[in-house]
Amino acid sequence: MKRFTKEENSWMFYDWGNSAYSIIISTAVFPLYYKASATEAGITGADSTAYLGYTIAIATFILAMLGPILGTIADYRGNKKKFFRFFAALGVVATAALSLIPPEQWLLLLIIYTITVLGSAGSNVFYDAFLVDVSSEERMDRVSSRGFSLGYIGSTIPFIVSIAIIISAQNGILPLSASAASRISFIITAVWWGIFTLPVLRNVEQRYFIEKEKHPVAKSFKRLAETFKDIRKYKGLFLFLLAYFFYIDGVGTIITMSTAYGTDLGISSTSLLVILFATQVAAAPFAILYGRLADRFTGKFMLYIGIIIYIIVCIYAYFMNSAMDFWILAMLVATSQGGIQALSRSYFAKLVPKEKSNEFFGFYNIFGKFASIMGPLLVGATAQVTGSSSHGVFSLIFLFIAGLILLSRVPDPKASIPVPGNIKTL
């Protein structure tokens, strides 16, 4: 494979920046900060975990509703970068704003957190859609996988700095409270994310587009309706989205609520941070490995492997009751979380008509985000009914099995792409 181009590298480095949000805000520091705030307010562990799940569900529902419409509008020349810039800026600013919320205001924390989710997930819709602009179909698996790998590696840098500050504060080395140290990590995340958004803004352009026309919003709704009308042309694509709806639900839920599970098991915040750091480090080479194995065995085969590993994760989670169990679970997740996400993105990119990439990645988003509503709700409800977070994780096994069955029915990408119409390209 030839060296990565300037556009490919610039695109991949957004993962390097945005993944700091994923580990520090979505997965590690913020959930611990929120859980501590909720506990101080007298909320039980199971209830606070459920409230976090409900918050994620609300945020993703909002974006899921907007995704296809915004994506259809963004398919017009020059709009993709504008939408990407807006959502990235929204996420960065809201993440920095988390540092201004006092720890006792746990409800306000969840409200601002909702805005950060909108910014991060919204920018990723258009970032993912840029994959068709920066790379060819033959290179997409490698480029997408390397992007995820860079994300894991890059996110460890602000994560290490944040952990060092938090642990130093907890041990009296720094004259800071644990709460203040956590809020500093939110600022670090925002700055890191903002800096590594710049290469995309400078070097990546929308190559495939639809020419602008009068009444773009009304025309976008019309094009969206036409896509639904011609859905038979895109049977393989929508079948893949249905499979993705189920299996990515489990993946996302496990990632975003893992610290809540660990806290409910009685694992200390310091131990959780160390485990999550180790998971990031281990996940990087596996993301690259998935991309290389996809070249040899096909992306679809490697998606099967990833889903099966997650089924094993759900079964193991049912029996976990110690920090060692959580370590084993985290390492199992590390083998596949990057690979399954990277190959889902590149597999889908091969299925979509390039001139409608934003519209279809809007659907990719809505299926993924609606799935993210069901997963946290399922885990939250199960945890409250049973009083056990482990039972909640186990309930996700049904989503992975459904995704596996549906994926087996998806045809080869080249057989699923309709004959292109009047594609405009720079």
UniProtKB/TrEMBL annotation:
Domain Major facilitator superfamily (MFS) profile positions: 236-426
Claim: Acetylation is one of the keywords in the record: no
GO cellular component: plasma membrane
Membrane topology of the entry: Multi-pass membrane protein
Keyword vocabulary terms for this entry: Membrane, Transmembrane, Transmembrane helix, Transport
Any Pfam family: ATG22
GO molecular-function terms, A-Z: transmembrane transporter activity
Ion transport found in the keyword field: no
CDD domains: MFS_YxiO_like (cd17482)
Positions of transmembrane segments: 12-34, 54-76, 83-101, 107-127, 148-169, 181-201, 237-261, 267-289, 301-320, 326-348, 360-383, 389-407
Localization terms from the record: Cell membrane
Protein name listed in UniProt: UMF1 family MFS transporter
Species this protein is from: Mesobacillus foraminis
